[in-house]
Amino acid sequence: MSEVMTLRDKFAVAVLPAIYLDKELKFLCEECALDEAWLIVSNRAYQIADAMLIARQKGAQK
Questions:
Q1: Cβ burial 24-48 (10 Å sphere, 16+ → b, else e)
Q2: Model confidence over 3-46: pLDDT tens digits?
Q3: DSSP 3-state assignment of 4?
Q4: Are the C-beta atoms of residues 12 and 48 closer than 8 Å to each other?
């Protein structure tokens, strides 16, 4: 079975470096376990990707 990256996945991957450098997130993750920190990072990436998809859709409607 071959998995294909969706546009949402690609957007999430694109924002990962910025999220990783976010000082607020680093502070938050100092208090949690490593696996929990990565869950927070991945959730944040997909939240931003969802916002990017909404903005893209609104731009296409103009």
A1: ebeeebeeeeeeebeeebeebbeeb
A2: 899 999 999 999 988 877 776 666 666 667 777 877 888 898 99
A3: coil
A4: yes
The first and second tokens of residue 49, run together, are 């990707």
Please name the residue ranges forming H helices in 1-62: 7-20, 23-30, 34-61
DSSP-assigned letter for residue 31:
T
Give dist(CA 41, CA 47) in Å, integer: 10
Q: What is the pLDDT of residue 18?
A: 83
pTM of the model: 0.75
Domain ranges across the chain: 14-57
**Alpha-carbon span 56 to 58, nearest angstrom:** 5
